[in-house]
Amino acid sequence: QARRTLSVQCVAAPEQVTTRVQRNKNIGKLQAGYLFPEIARRRRAHQEAKPDAKIISLGIGDTTEPIPPFIVEAMKKASEGLGTLEGYSGYGAEQGKGELREAVCKRLYEKVGRKPSEIFVSDGSKCDIGRLQLMFGADMTVALQDPAYPVYVDSSVIMGMTGGHNGTGFEGVQYMVCRPENDFFPDLSKAPRTDLIFFCSPNNPTGAAATRAQLTSLVEFARANGSIIVYDAAYALYISDDNCPKSIYEIPGAEEVAIETCSFSKYAGFTGVRLGWTVVPEQLRYADGTPLIQDFNRIMTTVFNGASIIAQAGGLACLQDEGWAQMLQLVEFYKENAAILRKTFQEMGFTVYGGENAPYVWVGFPGQKSWDVFAEILEKCDIVTTPGSGFGPGGEGFVRASAFGHRESVLEAVERFKAVYGNKQ
Ligand code: MLT
């Protein structure tokens, strides 16, 4: 047997150098890590301290149930096709497959006047929000719901649209407070004009879905001020209340002032598969008359190469009758989880919001700091939640419980909550 000898030469490690490149000063303005990795870090620390603890996560809104069979079959077929000459394909259109754009439009937007050419298929809403920010550039003024999904504010900070953090929030950002006192809808009579308004309904984290009347006033506000609404509808299919629109385009005139972004993540369990879309109506124009759709198309064709064709095959299946029915069942399952959590907290005497039109339950702990409550629940119940203040100053005093989880985990969480907080009143 031949033996090979390996000769290793030891050289002294080069001295560490620091580049002469200045850090993006806007990233330096961000306070801590992005919310969910920070929560994951605390969870790991808890697990290390209590290795036997069986931690339940009601923290990040990440889906847990298998993707419905009709949809999985379509993705299987698409991936197997890639292994054949006939089924192979390379780059697709950056805007998404024509067939999928048509199917999204037919199922969700045709009745509200949108066209397939206005629908841009992507790898998800979060990514699209980043690309929208790239399109808008640094010179925009921004308003957002407070509390809100952290991506809106963090991406605005990174782009340079804001000043530094003043201990409460970022300078220059208009935080539109949404709390029980105002029915979780901002007082627009007091809101100053901004170029952009990020608005999420049903809201993450509060679970509040805006009514038709509320959205009408939002659209009127944007029209009167010449603002653009970036409407995040990622949870729209969780809406039960007929009085709450599932798309901003149900409101007349929205097509001239609103972009809508949405995703299959929370509908079909696609958080890992990655597929979403953004609607940019032809009628939406900048002050100089340039249609936004033209610029968004430029962004997508420049920094995006189209969503995975396997994911797109899955998306197409979601929109066919059988896939649609299976997907709605999945949504229903998570809504039942939400109802279980909501009822539990109510029965224990907490003030609870959300959970009826959204997969998030928003629980009040008046007078307490959200991070303290988060830490206490983790310590006493081995349950991860999300501290309300992580979504903005307006979320202080609340924690969010996510309904994404296996049923047995949710039921086990209920038992643990009752054991610790059951005697609240
Ligand atoms: C959340 O927990 O708020 C969501 O999972 C975040 C996301 O959709 O990116």
Automatic annotation (TrEMBL):
UniProt xrefs under InterPro entries: Aminotransferase_I/II_large (IPR004839), DapL/ALD1 (IPR019942), PyrdxlP-dep_Trfase (IPR015424), PyrdxlP-dep_Trfase_major (IPR015421), PyrdxlP-dep_Trfase_small (IPR015422)
Gene3D superfamilies reported in the protein's UniProt record: Aspartate Aminotransferase, domain 1, Type I PLP-dependent aspartate aminotransferase-like (Major domain)
Domain Aminotransferase class I/classII large span(s) in chain numbering: 54-416
GO biological process: systemic acquired resistance, salicylic acid mediated signaling pathway
Keyword set, alphabetical order: Aminotransferase, Pyridoxal phosphate, Transferase
Cofactors demanded by this protein: pyridoxal 5'-phosphate
Transport in keyword set: no
One term of GO molecular function: pyridoxal phosphate binding
Family, similarity comment: Belongs to the class-I pyridoxal-phosphate-dependent aminotransferase family. LL-diaminopimelate aminotransferase subfamily.
NCBIfam families the UniProt entry points to: DAPAT_plant
Name the record gives this protein: Aminotransferase class I/classII large domain-containing protein
Native organism: Chlorella vulgaris
